[in-house]
Structures are given as structure tokens and as C-alpha cells.
Design goal:
By secondary structure, the chain is mainly α. It contains three helices and no strands. Helices cover about 60% and strands about 0% of the residues.
Length: about 160
């Protein structure tokens, strides 16, 4: 045997449980006491709120960016009318690349993806306290911020 399993510390339970002692993301974060479990659950709850807040910020920013892109594109798409060109607005267009908008959008998406993967790893511990903290945090966050993230679908 090459000792590949010698890095495993502790016993990871492969069923849903409330027992403390699971590694969360790295070896330095192993809540073993009740207080550490409560602190970890509060941290996960807050991270879930932050994830929903980022989604809401993206929704508000997307709405604002879309309005700006339409304004910028309307200047380019609607030249001064001539006798041979009909007056009208082209409704289908590709928004222009605006670095301030698109780089910010990419960073926010990457932050959301990172949090999503961290949440997935948390669920894979099968620790019900962690799972409930994430689900409740996401639910509370959606309740608080969900109306803003839906602004992208507003007209």
C-alpha cells in the first residue's frame, strides 16, 4: 500500500448526522465542541446571506447596465434620418462590451460560483447542522434580497 489514505484525519460519516468533528473546507476548521458548531453554523448562515446579497446586487446592476447599454447602442443604431432611411429603432442588438460592466459582472459571477462550490462541499460533509444553516440562510437571504435579483426580468 502506498499510504494514500494516511492523509485522512478523523472519521467522516457517510450518512446524515449532527455529531461534531467534520472538516469544513480545510483541516484548520474542524468544529469539535458545541460552541464551535454554533459558530460554524452562524458563519455558514452569514455566507448564505452574502451569496443571496451578491445575486441581488447582480440583478440591480444588470438592470442598470442594460439601460446604459440601450442608451449607448441607441446613439449608434439611430443615426440622423435621411430621406432614404426609415426612422425606427432596432430592438434586437448585442450590447456593447463595456469593461467596467463586464469585468464587474465576471467577478461577481465568479464569487457566486465559488460560494456555490463551497456550499456543495459543505453539504458533502452530511452534517445536518451545516446543511440546515445553509438552507435557512439561503431562504432568509432570498426573502430579504430576492426582489432585487428579479429586477433583471423587469421591463
Amino acid at each position: 500500500m502506498d499510504g494514500g489514505m494516511s492523509l485522512v484525519i478523523g472519521n467522516m460519516l457517510s450518512y446524515l448526522h449532527f455529531t461534531p468533528g467534520d472538516n469544513l473546507w480545510f483541516l484548520g476548521w474542524v468544529p469539535k465542541s458545541s460552541g464551535a458548531m454554533v459558530g460554524t453554523c452562524i458563519a455558514l448562515f452569514m455566507l448564505a446571506l452574502i451569496e443571496r446579497w451578491i445575486a441581488a446586487c447582480r440583478g440591480v446592476m444588470e438592470f442598470h447596465w442594460r439601460q446604459q447599454a440601450i442608451f449607448i447602442a441607441s446613439d449608434k443604431l439611430n443615426p440622423l434620418p435621411t430621406r432614404s432611411s426609415p426612422i425606427g429603432f432596432i430592438k434586437r442588438f448585442t450590447p456593447p462590451f463595456i469593461p467596467a460592466h463586464d469585468i464587474t459582472r465576471g467577478i461577481m459571477f465568479a464569487a457566486q460560483a465559488l460560494l456555490g462550490y463551497l456550499f456543495m462541499l459543505t453539504v458533502m460533509t452530511y452534517q445536518l447542522g451545516f446543511i440546515f444553516s445553509l438552507v435557512v440562510g439561503l431562504g432568509v437571504g432570498e426573502t430579504l434580497f430576492g426582489r432585487f435579483s428579479s429586477m433583471t426580468h423587469a421591463h
